[in-house]
Amino acid sequence: MPSPRQRFSTRQIEEWARNQRESTESHPLVSLEKKPCGCRKHQSSASENDIAVIVPCHNYGRFLAECLESVLAQSHSPAEIVVVLDSCEDDSAVVAGTFRGRGVRSIEINSGDPYLARRAGLHVTVSPYVLFVDADDVLTPPYIEVGMKQFSDSVGIVTGWCQEFGLHSQAWKPDPSVTDIQQRNCCVSASLVRRKALLESRAFDDFSCMHTIGQDWSVWKKVANAGWSIAESEAHYRYRRHENNRTNEATVLWAKRFQGDLRKIPSRRPRILHVTPSHCIGGVVRHLQQLIRHTLCDWAGTVIVNGGASDNDAVAEIGEIMPVIGGTKLHATMNADNLDRRKNLLAVFLELADKADLVYCWGPTNGLMSELLQTAPLPVVAAIHGTGVWGRKGAEEVAADSAAIISVCEPCRDYVPVRYRHKVRVIYNGADFKSLASMRTRDEVRDEWRIGDRKAVGFVGRWSWEKNPLAVAEAVNVLGEDYMAVICSPHCRSGSAGIPKDDRKRAEELTGGRIIWTYSEKMGDIYAALDCLVIPSTEEGGPLVGIESLSLACPVITTPTGMSPGLERGCPDSLLFIPVSPTGEQIAKQVKTAMCSCYRKRLVSFQDYVLQNFSAKYMASQWEKVFREIAKR
């Protein structure tokens, strides 16, 4: 099972955190981490001059020892040293382990982004000052001591001088006295920063800077916007220049993308042909978008099974990356006008297969997949995205022909016949946290809804029978006048007109008109405005809405379907479960639990756990490994 490793119970972690949180009681975030060591920092509360050094590390084991030695050699000894091992596949964990006896702790996460790695380190330390040091960089011995002397009551950040070394060498001196931090980054990434400034500015609660180069600059700007000043230290921070620098990689990738060079190196990138029984609004298309965005693969095209459902928006979005082609037989209700329709799908498949190394097949194809493979025998990576009849049918159909099967949860894996189960890899879904960055405040959204002081109980997703959206209206009926239902669905793009007439009428009757029909491309705005999200599905795979909601600390009430039980195992007692086909009373009871302050304290721990382990980038990296293995690239 590829879900993150859990070594200590929530109660053990919370008990330790309560004893260590004296200096940060104003900020309730408590993170899941490994058991603390016996160093001075974990035997007493933080003193006013204590500093925590946080070292984010992604496959930098070859540099990590030199970095940690420079931290341990400081004339002002850090009270805490934490290495955040993020999705490491080299010997980074082994190297970090050799420093355990010298007071260095390590935690393991799978976020795939330095911003979330730094955030994780911040939340497992308690010292009043913080220093982030990348694992490939080095501190000069007086760096912390000289920097700490520059703090005054108004100073939030102290930046040192930067000395580059490695591939090339140059030095630069920041000048915070004359430089506007909003226009130019005048602080080195290893600046000393006051914890209070980070918490007050909520510098690590905005995910819009994820997957960008200037993440540290974004943090410094937020601290400055909160009224804190920047001071300068003459101590040197040594910034290693090497071929794998993240800034170098991002710059090269940007240049190649805009020069059209990426597709000139097909020998290193798996080329994929996508075959699917439908291509319409919902989590599966969003999942495909994440694979396209976060994997280094080329996409030959998408073939929709004859008669498969298709949606204009979904076809348009994916159509910008690859051809989207369907048959001439029409679906009962969902037929995109912009879909390229062909009479002979076998001929289309043969044409596209010539440009592909493998087939990625999602869902049952009513026998078409076997016909296609007889025409062009390519290796197949099949995906099982849901429980219920749909998932079982898809698993049974593709099991024999597939070289590998990816299941988004354990129940989906169990649909595969036993003799083929060795082919299955379980890879949980991940969310694109950056896309959830809120554009509007909670109050602005709720004012638009005219919801007042009522509690907002939300449903997010397609209006479909297996999603059971009317259950939310039934719960609001039980909860009474102080609650409203919020239905956020692609079917609500034009108010409630896209919802079946009988369902609309029933929902309005149950809620007494206390219902909002809405939709937004900016889902972060919706989650931030809700008081809780309900997932009452009878069948599910790995609902992205649950991960997205939890990443913004919005409580999730869900049936035990799909990946939800596995997600909850990593952070026990945090998800609020309801039975499959729940009654309004059962949902209402859990809604009230979600409003309790004692639950909110557990929720923020769960938020950190989700952010650290269920990012779209990490999920896509696991898929890419399978694609490369099967394509032999």
Per CATH, which architecture of the largest domain?
Alpha-Beta Complex
Query: Which class of secondary structure composition applies to the elements?
Result: alpha/beta
Strand content: 15-25%
Top-tier CATH class of the largest domain: Alpha Beta
Instruction: Report the count of strand segments.
Output: 23
Q: What is the average of the pLDDT values?
A: 84
Mind summarizing the main beta sheet? 9 strands, mixed
Q: CATH homologous superfamily of the largest domain - what is it?
A: Spore Coat Polysaccharide Biosynthesis Protein SpsA, Chain A
Please give the share of residues in helix: 25-40%
Shape: globular
- Rg, Å, rounded: 26 Å
Count of discrete structural domains: 3
Low-confidence stretches: 1-44, 248-267
End-to-end distance: 24 Å
Tally of helical runs = 23
CATH topology of the largest domain: Spore Coat Polysaccharide Biosynthesis Protein SpsA, Chain A
